[in-house]
Write a structure and sequence with these properties.
Blueprint: H1 3-11, H2 13-22, H3 27-34, H4 36-46, H5 56-71, H6 78-93, E1 99-102, H7 103-117, H8 123-129, E2 132-140, E3 143-150, E4 156-163, E5 172-189, H9 192-203, E6 217-218, H10 221-232, E7 239-252, E8 259-269, E9 283-289, E10 292-297
Helix pairs in contact: 1-8, 2-6, 2-7, 3-5, 5-6, 9-10
């Protein structure tokens, strides 16, 4: 398994916990799994405490949102699809209220989902999950978030040594670091002001001393060409803004900085974006390190 993909999978572990089921289930099945009685049973069986006042109608609304995201996936850019689906799942799981999932619960969840899906998870992936102490879901000032606590107080270091996509061999991702207490925040992008921000995020070039350097601008051109039609068209669900704290990749570069820690700052998930004929990569992110900034769409 490509280690760069493995690392991204790890960051979004819920993606790959739920995606096998999401890929096979219709909306009714998803809704049934989410209704309050089912969630209460899961909470009791695993010892979780979930504080929420959601009704069955609320759970069905969440299920419908997940279903719409799944239906809007391209099935061409599988990694972008997985990241998009997983981030929406995390965002919707945050709707359940304030609760924590401990290591034993995570591994039990993975084991149970392996049985339900009939497909085993990658052993390396499970080894990475075993390094998580607990994950906290919650809401702060109206913003949903996920906080990752690791068994190692410094965090989890994932060796990669993988050439950067599109690289000529000069750039290499050495490792990905998930610091202890790293956080991921979720916001729905709605309204004209957010639409303008989204258009600029996709189209505006990153500059280094007034120069737009190609290696720092890797947003798929088709996204720039079609972002306006996506904004004006009927989106299946609101575009999702994801912001990160404490997650970075160390990259060996040919710049004067040599090794640069690129912190993943933010990303957008845009299920349903297309050129009118076929789906386009739905996930794009921004990272920063030292004086450098980069924007990348996940074109796989």
């Amino acid at each position: 398994m490509n280690k760069l993909v493995l690392a991204i999978n790890f960051l979004c572990f819920v993606i790959f916990s739920f995606a096998p089921i999401m890929g096979k289930a219709d909306m009714a099945t998803i809704a049934t799994a989410l209704v309050s009685g089912g969630v209460t049973a899961v909470a009791t069986d695993t010892g979780l405490t979930i504080k929420n006042e959601m009704t069955e109608a609320d759970y069905r609304r969440v299920a419908e949102g997940m279903f719409k995201v799944r239906e809007a996936l391209t099935h061409k850019y599988s990694l972008a699809d997985d990241l998009t689906l997983g981030m929406y799942v995390l965002r919707y799981l945050s709707d359940l209220g304030s609760y924590e999932v401990e290591n034993k619960d995570i591994m039990a969840l993975v084991s149970g989902l392996e049985q339900l899906s009939g497909e085993p998870f990658d052993p390396e992936f499970k080894t990475l999950l075993a390094q998580i102490e607990r994950i906290r879901f919650g809401e702060r000032k109206g913003v949903k978030y996920v906080k990752i606590f690791t068994l190692n107080r410094e965090g989890i270091r994932i060796p990669l040594d993988t050439l950067t996509a599109g690289s000529t061999g000069n750039n290499q991702v050495k490792f990905l670091m998930v610091k202890n207490k790293s956080q991921i925040f979720f916001s729905d992008l709605v309204g004209a002001k957010n639409d303008q921000w989204l258009k600029e995020f996709i189209r505006k070039k990153v500059r280094f001393f007034f120069f737009a350097i190609k290696s720092l601008n890797q947003i798929n051109k088709s996204l720039s060409d079609n972002i306006v039609s996506y904004i004006k068209g009927g989106r299946p669900v609101p575009t999702l803004l994801i912001e990160f704290e404490g997650i970075y990749a160390r990259v060996s570069t040919t710049t004067l900085f040599k090794d640069v820690d690129f912190y993943i700052k933010r990303a957008v998930a845009m299920p349903g974006i297309s050129n009118g004929q076929e789906g386009l990569p739905s996930f794009a992110l921004e990272a920063r390190g030292k004086l450098l900034q980069a924007k990348v769409s996940i074109d796989r």
